[in-house]
Amino acid sequence: MTTLLLSAPRPDATLHSTGAVAGNQFPVLLVEGMEASTLRGHGSYLGLEIYSGVNAFDSPCLVALHQASGTLSEYRCTPAPADLIMDVSSHGDGFEGFEGRAGDGIIRFVLRYDTVDAYVYLIPEEG
Q: Is the link from the previous residue into 81 a cis peptide, with omega within 30 of 0?
């Protein structure tokens, strides 16, 4: 008997829907095509608050807010049935680093039904 194991990258974290409704903390930029009333929380990860929802075209969306500053870090929408992937860089928008993790890189968030998988990709600092 032969067993074949498929190896796929495992997420560093899986965020489950908290059911929390988004409040007024979203920047005005989100109003453009985003249905703020549909946004639901998935909790936080490495300094980012993650929400999912739909836009005016009924496409699924992911939103990342920088917790410390309350600013929009990133958002992406993708027509279904395509996979919804959002990459957040460790630099930019006043966001420097991922809560003490050394090195530059990204966190890739992938929406899977009512969960969001997070994959951390870092380039270690030289030294």
A: yes
Q: Is the peptide bond before 9 cis (omega within 30 degrees of 0)?
A: no
Q: What is the pLDDT of residue 76?
A: 92
Segment (H or E) for 14? strand 13-16
Sort strands 40-45 and 13-16 into parallel, antiparallel or unpaired. Answer: unpaired
User: 44: which 2 tokens?
Assistant: 């936080």
For the question of whether the overall pTM of this predicted structure is more than 0.90, the answer is no
Q: Which residues of 108-120 are buried (b: 16+ CB within 10 A; e: fewer)?
A: bbbbeeeebbbbb
Residue 91 DSSP SS3: coil
Residue type, 84: L
User: E strands along 17-114, which residues?
Assistant: 40-45, 48-54, 60-66, 71-77, 84-89, 104-112
Residue 80 scores a pLDDT above 70: yes
SS3 72: strand
Average pLDDT over residues 74-97: 80
pLDDT at 14: 97
